[in-house]
Amino acid sequence: MSLEISPSGQPFGASITGLNLSMAVSSNVVAEIRDAWLQHHVLAFPDQAISDDDLERFTLLFGPFGDDPFIAPIPGRKHIIAVKRAAAETAPIFAESWHTDWSFQEAPPAGTCLYGITIPPEGGDTLFVNQHLALEHMPDTLRQRIEGRQAIHSARNAYAPTGFYGAADRAAGRSMDIRPSDDAEATQRHPIISRHPETGREALFGCAGYIIGIEGMEQAESWDLLTEIFRWQTQPQFQYRHKWQPRMLLMWDNRSLLHMATGGYKGFDRLLHRTTIGSA
Questions:
Q1: Residues 154-212: pLDDT tens digits?
Q2: Whole-model pTM?
Q3: What does the H/E/C string look like for 255-272?
């Protein structure tokens, strides 16, 4: 088995061919994939006819399953979420804002796997932005203001009963099985500048949305700073745009990236299955 790793031609991201993920993968190949993952941050595996069992097996090659709160798993599974949208759905696009998955957890996940099952003929790209690059190019004056500071992360704005995906969103007829909860009010603190546990590279971690404040700062002052960071960290020169194909598996590193969904496929069904790679 010989892997072919093809960089995307964008600031980061690559595709991998030359393997069949419906079959067992050797430890040597897993090591190659992990090295490529850490180097390119987003990996696409096109033309993979895999089952939910295969998706779960692949996920566990890179860490334990992560805990996915607020979204019900598909029937018969504990660790697979359906990211879906019906052709006639009118609710806002799910996850159409910059974030890193579940940054409000005490131990946020290492990565995410997403497998394309029903892919519209147009639209639905996923955008990523590299937080190593954003930090490395950040002006010293801005970096000095965030050095050593802790951000306050929470799911309240998204998944509390009064949040974006709360009771009003359910009433709009969303096809995804989102379960808002008072648990979303909890908070966790994480450094704004983090060090990647495998590569040692520093990166910005998280952004406004799941970040609701900065420890030791008044709310207005912290929001001004978070807005400035957000504008810097999401710039186009740090981005990769991923275009989907049916039967494509994607994996990305939540420790080094932000990502967001896009629309543009009104009138078409869309279905992907997602797993979370937990922190080791």
A1: 999 999 999 999 988 988 889 999 999 999 999 999 999 999 999 999 999 999 999 99
A2: 0.97
A3: CCEEEEECCCCCCCCEEE
SS3 176: coil
CA distances from 132 to 11, 50, 211, 219 (A): 11, 32, 18, 27
237-262 residue pLDDT tens: 999 999 999 999 999 999 999 999 99
Question: For the chain, first and last CA: distance in Å?
Answer: 27
Sequence-distant (6+) residues with CB within 8 A of 188 are: 104, 105, 106, 152, 153, 154
Q: Do 220 and 187 contact (CB within 8 A), yes or no?
A: no
SS3 278: coil
* Nearest-angstrom CA–CA distance, 7 and 22: 23
Residue 256 forms beta bridges with which residues?
none
Q: What's the CA gap between 142 and 123, in Å, rounded?
A: 35
